[in-house]
Structures are given as structure tokens and as C-alpha cells.
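Q&A log
Question type: sequence-to-structure
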Amino acid sequence: MNDKPLIGRTIALMVANGFDEIEFTEPQKRLIEAGAKVTVVSRANGLVNGWYDGGWGHFFPVDADLADTLAVDYDGLIVPGGIRSVEKMAEDPHAKRILKAFLRADMPTALIGDGAKLTIASEDASGRVVTGSALIRDAMVEAGADWQDEDVVVSGNLVSGTGSEVIGQVMEQFTTLVAGYEGEVNEAA
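Response status: OK
Response body:
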């Protein structure tokens, strides 16, 4: 098997301040190792602050502003968990627009931990087969999601996982989806 299956692919890693640092750094590392170009997209100006072990963590550089980001420019999207980050993005029309574009075009998307909750804000939770952190379960079910009590769920080109303990499994599935993806986005502005 090709040890760099994502060469030539560009992945958006969408976050706001308060994202789960492990759910961000592990996917980023695995994507780079697989040959992908990773672009950190956020509304944070210049640097975005992670959440690690119960407190504020490290700062990471932002490569692109959400306002200037279009799904058509990427081959996949990852939304790490971290309820602070997800709640900030849920209030941002650009974050909702980006997620909606990826999901509606059935492009490879990974939602880790609390990340699946962003589908509620983008009005895309109903009927989605997902899993995530226990913290978001009730809200997802109430929004009409088909919640699965599994560590990792793959539904079409959507991969969701319960959190940092299953990142390896999430990334294995996501990498396979991105490597095989040939579709194009028809994104409404």
C-alpha cells in the first residue's frame, strides 16, 4: 500500500479557540505523514488556542480565515472536538456554510468528539448517522440524528468518532475516503 496516499490532496482542519488539542494535533500529524497539505481554517486572527488537560493549551498558526474558505478548494474537512470551539463555530455563519457545503456534496468529512454537534447549527443533523462524545448525544438525538453507540461510525463520506481515544481509527477511515474521492463541489455561495 502507498505510504503517502494523500499526496496532492488538501485538507481543511476547521477550529475555533478552545478546540481539543489532541483531536487537532493527532489528525494534523497523520495527514502530513500521509502526504496531505493541511490548512488550518479559523476566525481566530493569526493564532488559535487549544484546550488541553482541563486548561488552555498551545497556540497554533491559522492558515486561512473562515470567511475566505470554500469547500471547493479542499479534498476533505476535519472538525476536531472541544465544546468551546464547536459552540463558537456554531455561531459563525462561515463555519456553518463550510460544513454544510462538505456534507451536502458528500465530500470526505471527519467529525471528532464534540465536532458532530456543529451539524445541528448547520441544520444538517437530521437523518445523519453519527457518533461523538457522550456530552452531545442528547442534543444530536433531539436534532434528529441517528445516533450510534459505537467508537467510530462511517456513513457515506462522513466519519465520526467519540474522541481522542479513537483518532487512529477515524483517521484510517478518513484517509481511505479522501484517497478514493473523485467528486466535485457545487457550492452555493
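Response note: The first strand starts at residue 10 and ends at 14.
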